[in-house]
Specification:
homodimer, 445 residues, Rossmann fold, nine-stranded mixed β-sheet, Histidine--tRNA ligase (chains A, B), nucleotide-binding (chains A, B), aminoacyl-trna synthetase (chains A, B)
Chain lengths: 445, 445
């Protein structure tokens, strides 16, 4: 076999990085569960027709075919890898509605795949963590206020740069656009969504072309998009623009509530930001986009919003609200910046040194006793000189080496960082709590 | 959207089952880490040529193609979904050898995919948990004895039927076949591997056809296959057959050692079983196959062995030993038999009742205080009558409902199973430890 190569867009972490990723997933998952979100994992594939419901991303789908597909197998049942966790979740809710309790709160942490062109240097496989709440027929509004708090808590307990969640409400934008006389608020939304990418000049042109906006209307749209506030004061700024519309008022009230709840729970977590549009058509209320402080130029690491028509079949309607967090995206940014580090490359806290091959059974018993008390332990692979065995531990960052005593003598354990060595009994000795598991820290932190 | 359907071979668990699966994964992972295995996750795809190295499974591969593949994109770089975790691991080791410390112990818990024909009713997507140890050039033997102990500990701590690991050694079979004069021991192995499926009569025919075995030679092969023992006594039974061969002796010594180590650590976990052949050509030493007691007729739930040539490129050789555990397979069996149950369908331990919508902020503070102390908490979705709010908790199996006190009165918390209700402060009250998380138990156990 020739030496294999990495594949562009399919990142793989080395074990130390994977330990950091796992620690992150564990904390996120624990936070989601503290909020009562139940775990869900959907299959990796969906029928192609399900995937194509979101027309705009259809080009990014990976389709599957069996290497030895039988003659005459049709494309009718073509399967594709899911490109997000929202479409599979909506499908799962419709398929299993009779077995679920509503409101249904679930989280889902899974890989997704996008058939991006290789040359674009984007991820083609990446890990997402999603939470959603869906209800039957009607969704109580408070879940729109709860979403950012969950994500704030999930990320706040990790050694990451602080997250800032930009919040807007579709009703604000759409109501405002209607209030100034634009007939196609969706087209205006899509134009404003491009503001960061193409700038106000091009957006003005786009608003004229696609939404039929006059210069004055385009200017008003841009003035709305400029409004942001770390509190509920955005409402006065909007009202100062003198536009009235019932949907606009409703949106302002909702957004004020989201900002008040956030301020009570996590001051500084959210900013009301009228330029957040979210390209996807299916959002109908609050929308979210989060960035990491210091990494704003790399774009958002979480996004989501309120939707009403994603999960519906016939008369059944399951409105919902959700946020997707890009775990691979965050780690890619932070690993790239060297901003995260882990104290060792293995879970092992103790290496049991092997005095001679004959004494392996005794060393295995020491290891079993330590493991039985929750202390990750390995026995040295060979009865090499102790210096070599200590280097084995050092190279991996294993903090403690256990030396079995000679006949009639006590065992000792050595902290190979400090050189401290003490007598120890595997039935009672424990490492300091901070050495029990590998420690993940912000580099330099 | 029409009501979606499940896809044959792609199982999806409901949240209560997913909670059971997660508890199982958590315990397995924790055990692997206690033994010092480092986590690894490889990309879901491999280049087709890598996947085809194991010729026998090539027919089961799912290939990927981008829905909007550009004209002129060749099949040269065709990617397929991995069908096991061994091939990707071998590739990863070769690709990253310079960054790894050897012996390298890793575990990997991931989905794999096989493009089985839909009508066969087999899993096409399933979860595997693998451990492997690889070393550079030479692999110390003791890892072959350690493997079953890790799996025994991983499964032993869960409410599952006990696992029985059948162990053999390729050197025993091959040495024996050579010792009786068969020139193609691999062919004999493949024939014996079919014993359980096709019976001794057909195996005798197969041995004649494919391995050129005489009646006497076939009989000897079958007599070897009949030997099994829960201890090291299999060695005397083999020697009583009167066959001598150096490889056979080496294999017997190794298998005795595996059985002795297992007896010292986990009595009853392993059985030496000479009919275990494992179809795959790449095994060179100890081989394993494990079944759940009471579910033997469904076949093995774990399998693996020692290999010498799986990860090698040019002069670099990384011999290893590993076991794959079929998590989806085990859960499919046990869910099918109704053998596992979980105490509630959500992580939530406490539902905070909502006296009126005006008091939501106070209820949110109670919930935040409980969550801050590690107690999974939800606030009721609406200020319905308390009877309805209690039924909300009951339906989900949430054991406690928290009632915020009226102005100047203490809060109370009610165990809705017993009806016991006590005054409580969210800063100090905790549920009994057994109610903190959903409890997974053997049904009826």
């Amino acid at each position: 076999m020739s030496r294999p190569k990495s594949i562009s867009g399919f990142p793989e972490w080395l074990p130390p990085q994977r330990m950091i990723e796992q620690r992150m997933i564990d904390h996120i998952r624990r936070t989601f569960e503290l909020y009562g979100f139940a775990p869900l994992e959907t299959r990796a594939v969906e029928p192609l027709d399900q995937l194509l419901r979101k027309g705009e991303t259809s080009k990014e789908v990976y389709l599957l075919r069996r290497l030895q597909a039988a003659e005459g197998e049709t494309d009718e049942d073509t399967l594709g890898l899911h490109f997000d966790l929202t479409v599979p979740f909506a499908r799962f809710v419709l398929e299993n509605a009779g077995k679920l309790h509503f409101p249904f709160r679930r989280y889902q942490i899974q890989k997704v795949w996008r058939g991006e062109r290789p040359q674009e240097g984007r991820y083609r496989e990446f890990l997402q963590a999603d939470i959603d709440v869906v209800d039957r027929d009607e969704l109580p509004f408070q879940y729109e206020a709860e979403m950012p708090l969950v994500l704030g808590d999930a990320l706040g307990g990790l050694p990451l740069p602080p997250v800032l969640i930009h919040v807007n409400n579709r009703k604000v934008s759409e109501g405002f656009y209607r209030g100034i006389g634009l007939d196609d608020p969706q087209a205006a939304l899509r134009a404003i969504d491009k503001l960061a990418k193409i700038g106000p000049g091009k957006v003005t042109e786009l608003l004229a072309e696609t939404a039929g906006a006059s210069d004055a209307q385009a200017k008003a749209c841009l003035r709305l998009a400029e409004i942001s506030s770390p509190d509920a004061s955005f409402a006065d700024q909007i009202r100062a623009l003198g536009v009235t519309d019932p949907l606009l008022d409703e949106g302002i009230d909702e957004l004020v509530r989201v900002m008040e709840v956030a301020a009570a729970h996590s001051p500084g977590l959210c900013v009301a930001d009228m330029k957040i549009a979210r390209g996807l058509d299916y959002y109908t209320g609050t929308v979210y986009e989060g960035t990491l402080r210091g990494f704003e130029r790399f774009g958002s690491v979480l996004a989501g919003g309120r939707y009403d028509n994603l999960a519906s079949a016939g008369a059944d309607r399951y409105p919902g609200v959700g946020i997707s967090l890009g775990i691979t995206r965050i780690l890619g940014l932070l690993f790239g910046a060297g901003a995260l580090t882990v104290s060792r490359s293995v879970p092992t806290a103790v290496l049991v040194a092997l005095p001679s091959e004959e004494r392996r059974a005794g060393c295995d018993r020491v290891a079993a006793a330590l493991r039985g008390r929750g202390i990750a332990t390995e026995v040295a692979p060979t009865a090499a000189k102790y210096g070599k065995q200590i280097r084995f531990a050092e190279r991996r960052g294993i903090p403690f080496v256990w030396f079995p005593g000679a006949e009639g003598e006590a065992d000792t354990v050595k902290d190979i960082r400090s050189g401290d060595q003490v007598e120890a009994d595997p039935a009672t000795w424990s490492p300091p709590a901070e050495d029990l598991r590998p420690a993940v820290t912000a580099a330099g932190g």
